[in-house]
Design a protein that fits this description.
Layout (H helix, E strand, L loop, with lengths): L4 H29 L1 H9 L4 H15 L2 H13 L5 H14 L1 H12 L7 H11 L5 H26 L7 H11 L3 H18 L2 H13 L5 H14 L2 H7 L4 H23 L1 H14 L5 H9 L16 H26 L3 H11 L24 H30 L6 H32 L5 H36 L6 H26 L6 H30 L5 H32 L6
C-alpha cells in the first residue's frame, strides 16, 4: 500500500487549510459588513419572503450557512428577532449556502484559482497594512479566498488514489454495491464528516474530488452531500446550548427543517437523482448517471475516461455541475414546500421545547448572553446591549424599593422584607456587572471593527455607572437603618421634600432606561431631557441644602435630623449624576453626532 502516514497528515493539513481559508474569508466579509449586517437582518425579516431573501443573500455573502444560522440564533437569543422570523431566514440560508458549492464546483475544474493564488496574495497582503479598516477586511477576504482553493488543490493531491491503493478500493467496494443500503451508509458518513468539520463546504469539496476521480459513484456522492445537510446543523446547536430558550428553539427549527427535508429526499432518492441528472443533461452537460453506469460496466469511452484512468475534463465538469445542482434543487424544493408551514414549525418547536416556569427576578440570571454564544463578535454586541437594558430595568426596581423603604416604619415587618430584597438586588447587580463585563471583554478579543471596539468601551462605562446607581439605592437603605438606630424621626415637610427629590430622580431614571432600550439610535430629545433633569435635581438639592441650614438655625428641627435628611438628599443627587453618566456613555459611544 503506497498511502503512508505522512500522506494522511498532509491530507489533514490540506483540509485544515481549506477550513481556515473559509474562516478568514467569512470573517473578512463580516467585518466589512459589521453593523450593516445587523441592520439588514433586523429590517428585512418582517415577513416570510423578505426573511428568506435575507437568509439567501447573507449566506451567499459570508459563504457559510453555519455562520449565518449562528448569527440568527444569536439574534433570537438577544430578542432582536422572533422565532417565526428566524425560521424564514434559516430556510433561506439553506439555499444561500449552495452559492459556495457552485463557486467550488465552477472554479475547481474550469478555472484553477490556485494557479493565481500567489498573485492574489501579493495584492491582498499590502491591504492589511492600510489605514482604512475596509481595505484591511477586504485583504483578509482575498487571503481567505486563496487559502480555500489552495487547500482544495492540496486535498485533491493527497486524497488516497484508490487505483494505486487496491486495498482501500476493495474496502470501499464492500459498501458501494449494496444498493439502497450504500446510500444510507454514505448518507451517514456525510453527517459524521460534516459534524466533525463543522463545514458542509469542506464535505462537498472532498466529495467533489472523490466523484470527479471516479472513486465513488455520482449517487453516493449526492448521499454524502445530503448527509452533510444534516451535519451542518451541529454548529448552531452547539452555539445555542448556553443561550436562552428562544435560541435553543431557533436551533431546533434549523434541525427540523434539514432533517425533514433530508428524510423525504432519502425516501424519494432514486427519482430525485434522476431529476437532477436530467437537468444536468438538459443544460448541455453529460448525464452524470451515464458516467457512473459506464464506469460500473467498465466501458472504454474516450469521451468519459482517460487511458491512464480517471474522468476526462468534460466528464469531471459534468459531475461537478451535478453535485452542485443536487443541493440547489433539493434546498429550493424543500424551501418551496416548507415556507408555507412556518407557523406550524413554530408551534411544533414550542411543543417540543416548552417554556419552563420563568425564574423570578429575585434570582440571578442573564437573559440574553451566555458563555457559548460567541459566534460572531460584531453580532454579540447586540446581545450585550439587550442585557444592559435589562440591567438598567432591574436597577430601576431598586429605586422603587428605596422610595418604599423611606415611608415604611422600622417596626413594620415590611421594612425588613424590603431591606433584604434591596440587599439581594444589590448583590445581583454586582454579579451582573461582572458577567456582562466578562462577556464584553471576550467579545473585544474577537475580530471587531473600530466602531465595534468603540461600542465595547462605551458599554463597559455604562455598566459601571449602572452598578453605581445600584450601590446608591442600597446606600439609601443603609442611611435609613442608621437613622432608625438613632431614633431619628423626619417631619412631614421633610418627607414631602424627599418625595419631590426622589420623584425627580425617578423621572431621570425612566428617561435613562428608555435610552438604554434604543442604544443604537438614541433620540436627541431624550439626551437633552437627561441634561435638563440632572440640572433640575442639582438645583433642587441646592435649594434644600440652603433651607436645611436655615431650619437648623431657626430650630425647626435638630441637627441630627438635618444630617440624615441631607444624607438622603445627597444620595438622590448622586443617583442623578450616575444616570447622566450613563446617558453620556450612550451619547458619545453610540451616536455619530453627539449633542453638545
Amino acid at each position: 500500500m503506497d498511502y503512508s502516514l505522512l500522506d494522511f497528515l498532509s491530507l489533514l493539513g490540506a483540509v485544515c487549510l481549506f477550513l481556515y481559508g473559509m474562516k478568514v474569508m467569512s470573517e473578512g466579509l463580516q467585518k466589512v459588513a459589521g453593523d450593516r449586517l445587523r441592520n439588514i437582518l433586523g429590517i428585512m425579516t418582517r415577513n416570510r419572503l423578505t426573511g428568506v431573501l435575507t437568509g439567501i443573500v447573507i449566506t451567499a455573502l459570508i459563504q457559510s450557512s453555519s455562520a449565518s444560522t449562528v448569527m440568527v440564533v444569536s439574534f433570537v437569543n438577544a430578542g432582536l428577532m422572533s422565532l417565526a422570523q428566524s425560521m424564514a431566514v434559516i430556510f433561506g440560508a439553506n439555499v444561500g449556502t449552495t452559492v459556495t458549492t457552485w463557486i467550488i464546483s465552477a472554479f475547481s475544474f474550469e478555472i484553477h484559482i490556485s494557479d493565481y493564488s500567489i498573485v492574489l496574495i501579493a495584492l491582498a497582503v499590502p491591504m492589511l497594512f492600510m489605514k482604512r479598516s475596509f481595505y484591511k477586511s477586504l485583504g483578509e477576504f482575498l487571503i481567505g479566498f486563496c487559502f480555500l482553493f489552495m487547500g482544495l488543490d492540496l486535498i485533491s493531491a493527497y486524497v488516497p488514489n484508490l487505483q494505486d491503493n487496491p486495498q482501500m478500493l476493495a474496502f470501499l467496494q464492500d459498501y458501494t454495491s449494496l444498493g439502497y443500503a450504500s446510500v444510507l451508509i454514505f448518507f451517514t458518513v456525510g453527517i459524521i464528516i460534516t459534524m466533525v468539520m463543522q463545514a458542509s463546504a469542506a464535505t462537498f469539496a472532498v466529495t467533489l474530488i472523490m466523484c470527479s476521480q471516479g472513486w465513488i459513484s455520482f449517487p453516493l456522492g449526492c448521499a454524502i452531500i445530503l448527509g452533510g445537510n444534516i451535519g451542518t446543523t451541529i454548529t448552531p446547536v452547539l452555539a445555542s446550548l448556553s443561550g436562552n430558550l428562544a435560541a435553543r428553539r431557533g436551533a431546533m427549527g434549523h434541525v427540523m427543517f434539514n432533517v425533514l427535508g433530508s428524510v423525504v429526499a432519502l425516501i424519494l432518492f432514486n427519482p430525485f437523482i434522476d431529476l437532477v441528472a436530467d437537468i444536468v443533461a438538459w443544460c448541455g452537460n453529460i448525464n452524470p448517471l451515464d458516467i457512473s453506469r459506464a464506469q460500473e460496466a467498465r466501458m472504454a469511452d474516450s469521451t468519459l475516461f482517460l487511458p491512464e484512468g480517471g474522468y476526462t475534463a468534460r466528464a469531471q465538469a459534468s459531475v461537478a455541475f451535478g453535485l452542485a445542482m443536487f443541493p440547489t434543487i433539493f434546498n429550493a424544493i424543500n424551501l418551496g414546500i416548507m415556507i408555507w408551514f412556518t407557523k406550524l414549525y413554530v408551534k411544533i418547536v414550542c411543543w417540543i421545547m416548552p417554556a419552563r416556569h420563568s425564574d423570578t427576578e429575585e434570582d440571578f440570571s442573564l437573559k440574553f448572553i451566555g458563555r457559548g454564544m460567541l459566534g460572531t463578535s460584531e453580532l454579540n454586541i447586540a446581545q450585550a446591549q439587550k442585557e444592559i437594558a435589562v440591567y438598567g430595568q432591574r436597577v430601576q426596581r431598586m429605586l422603587g424599593m428605596a422610595k418604599e423603604l423611606i415611608h415604611t416604619p422600622d417596626n413594620d415587618s415590611r421594612y425588613q422584607e424590603v431591606y433584604n430584597r434591596l440587599e439581594k438586588y444589590e448583590d445581583i447587580s454586582d454579579r451582573m456587572e461582572i458577567e456582562i463585563g466578562k462577556f464584553l471583554n471576550r467579545v473585544a478579543e474577537g475580530r471587531l471593527s473600530p466602531e465595534g471596539k468603540m461600542r465595547i468601551a462605551g458599554m463597559l462605562r455604562i455598566i459601571s455607572e449602572i452598578e453605581s446607581i445600584a450601590d446608591g439605592c442600597f446606600n439609601v437603605a443603609k442611611t435609613l437603618t442608621r437613622k432608625n438606630q438613632n431614633h431619628v424621626e423626619f417631619t412631614p415637610s421633610m418627607f414631602k421634600e424627599i418625595d419631590i427629590m426622589f420623584s425627580l430622580v425617578d423621572g431621570a431614571m425612566c428617561n435613562m432606561t428608555e435610552l438604554l432600550t434604543q442604544m443604537e439610535t438614541p433620540e436627541d430629545s431624550k439626551i437633552i431631557a437627561a441634561y435638563n433633569k440632572e440640572r433640575e435635581i442639582n438645583n433642587y438639592r441646592n435649594k434644600l441644602r440652603d433651607a436645611n441650614i436655615f431650619n437648623i438655625n431657626h430650630q425647626a428641627y435638630d441637627y441630627q435630623q438635618g444630617i440624615f435628611y441631607m444624607d438622603l438628599v445627597g444620595e438622590a443627587e448622586k443617583l442623578g449624576d450616575y444616570m447622566l453618566n450613563v446617558v453620556e456613555g450612550v451619547k458619545h459611544q453610540f451616536k455619530a453626532d453627539g449633542i453638545s
